[in-house]
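Page 42, continued from yesterday. The earlier attempt failed because a stray header line got pasted into the input along with the sequence. Redoing it now with the clean sequence only.
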Amino acid sequence: MSPSRLLHRLASVLTWIFRRNQAEQCLDDEIRAFVEMAAAEKVRDGIPPAEARRLALIELGGIEQAKERVRTGRHGGSVDEIGRDARYALRMFSRQRTFTVVIVLTLALGIGANTAIFSVIDSLLLRTLPVKQPERLAMLVASEQTTWTYPIWKQIERDTGAFDGALAWSTYDARFNLASGGETQFVNGAWTSASTFSTLGVAAALGRVFTPADDERGGGPDGPVIVISHAFWQRHFGGARDVIGRALTIERTPFTIVGVTQAGFLGLNVGRSFDVAIPLGVEPLVRGVQESRLDRPMSWWLSVVVRLKPGQTIENGSTVFRTLQAGIREATLSNQMTSAAAAQYLVEPFGLIPAATGRSGLRMAYQRPLIVIMGVVALVLLMACANIANLLLARATARGHEWSVRLALGASRGRLARQLLVESLLLAVLGAAAGLLVASWGSQLLVAQLSSDAVTLDAGLNGRVLAFTAISAIIAALLFGIAPAWRATRGAPIDAMRDRGRGNTAGGRVTVASGLVVTQVVLAVVLVVGAGLFLRTFNSLVTLPLGFERERVLLVDIDARRSAIPPEARAAGYDRVLQRVRAVPGVAAGGLSLVEPLSGAMWSRLVEVSGSSLSSDARVTGPEGFGHTSDTIPANEPLAAFNAITPGWLAAYGTPIRAGRDLRSSDHATAPPVALVNEAFARKFLNGNDPLGHTIRATRSTGPIAREIVGVVADAAYRTVREPILPTVYVPLAQYDGDSAPAAPSELTLSIRSRSHAPAALTKSVAAAIGEIHPTLALTFHPLDSRVDEMLLQERLLALLATSFGVLALLMAGVGLYGVTSYSVNLRRTEIGIRMALGATRLAVIGLVLGRLSMLVSIGIVIGLALAAWASRFVTVLLYGVWAGDPLTLVLAAAVLSAIAFIAGFLPARRASRLDPTQVLSEM
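This time it went through. Structure tokens are written below.
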């Protein structure tokens, strides 16, 4: 078809749709004018007017028939015919309300679940940042490294003339305390360079954004300033227009508010919104000079993003950075690195990756689980389509007489197929509309389950989500509509002469239905196996021995950075706090530690152990090896995890001493250095031999200190629940030899063992007790039990969703098997009656009915188990304590499906065995 003809056809269709009445009136006028002209010609030939008009109408073939031919010539007639098909389908649905409601609800669950998951995937993985031309943003990386130090950023900032701007943004979520003391009042924050907002193209909705002067050490001409988010402005200040110039106290330091960002801009860390943005240069005012990361060459905490020039590619930008690399690396080389680490640092190449979608720790944690769940809900939708197809096949067979009559009256087979496809599409549209309601609720519920902290994801409806829903509805309509449409076109006009076509359409229907049953069983097996694997993973982690009791421990994070306690007086202050808390009624034990268990943080050091064959000649990866990291401790490296604790800390967790002694109050700063080790340490460094009396030398920047091992404690989880038990060294907090020594650390965790099973009830009394000693300490409370639950959020979510959809799959499979078996019994009713009349027993009839079903289910289970074993390879990384091809899970899935199939098939089989042969034969 030529372009002009196509445009003419399109214009005709649009005119008919939007100006139908006018178009129909014009068509009617044209047809009648044509009839009058033809009749006038015949009158001139001597034919009477009445007869001339009759002959003209005969030649035309009827006015309505002529209109139909004109419509077909102009726009194929498809729009009008589809409209009639739709109206007819709606009338059918109104008469079969139960049938329609069942299908619509089934589709609503399937399409709604898919839309809900896709909306979360879209907001977390696909959606670009709401900034100017996000496609031109690129993030600096080096191999697998994505975080950078402040000295590196300052070098990059000086050499970014080849780009349209560069920015630095804190990689990890920052939380700032608004309270002046006592229990904390946190807001979400971000450390940013002065160039951040201008590089992103984000203007201020009120006031201004940062200028280079604001990023100076100690603040610019206006002193320490901040920019707040639009949401925080509305929530905390009620949207007051005079907020600019107001002071906001953060970590006991007053900041001046200079701007409010545009609504919708939530920052670069997708999934986490910021409330306040603070320039990097004033970081020492918040964290304290001793704790500041600005001058630490081994503190990796910033993401660096550049804006490419128009036409500049990622490859071009990477080349530019590699030309700058030597100068940047040389200027930021740290003397804390070994020679091997320094050599690697100097040559590891810079590169750029696209940053249009920002960066997100939440994305890295949930990308694979969300894709897995997307696959699960897609299988659920396929099962729903198979179920609906079986229902529509049964309905199509019942309408066989109607189709035969239509064929006998001249309807084409394509016309019948289109009628059924229109009905299927309407059902899909209704299901999709209901599914949007399910998706709206489900997406919000899913977002709330992604983290124990507040997650900021806009998982609402947008054009992309609506397009996905529409495509899902169309695909679903085709999946469950093609089989009934094909079945309808197989009928013959002669069937209209028979008793409603009985016996002529069953074979094809049963064959197609059998295939759908096998498909349902295959999909159900895959879903049940997946649910079993994730449930067993969650159970393995929940029941995993942690080495301590989690139910009765209350954790109190103590932050003394902005308190009135001088650094040299912290140790004595902490001791008074600990003694006062131990005297609180309901407290059974308590102790302080540098590292909080299961916090994701780790303090590690290279060690030399007397009598050990492991060497400490290895690289140092960070300042004292302390910080958040995803690396595990290699078995062949002399690396151990450390923690600084006080006496009573082990008792607070109920961790037993296996040999030797616990730490004592006599292990003070001037006493001989001592240490405790766990059993994993003894196994790694001393092949399981008794470590008592051996000495440990830990690598540190100021030289090693020899410590005598005086006790062995039971193994306990250190950083995460999933991680193997780490070789761990416990040193007295009074003998802490870290970066802040000889002063005590500014941040510690107080662990309190409650006498009851409700440790959170101690919060108020503990806060009051600490306030009596040092009211300016910042305190954050949370039970250890909740921390363990946070560690298992991903596994719990996967287990919950997979189990829910697995149960739904079993329900659909059971309904589908029951339906096809019932239909098969109805079709074979005469055969069964004859068999019983000839002497067949009820047991034989039940066996006859269940025999075919058992064959179909067995085929489905075999294929499903093979498919599940193959597909489970892709979720191995999400499993724990269970093999992807776990035989027990596969066997249990097969057993459950077999039981469901037996129950679904036995009910109609028993009904068939109770048929009265006399009544059946009398109906023949």
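Notes: Residues 561-776 form one domain.
Reminder to self: strip header lines before submitting.
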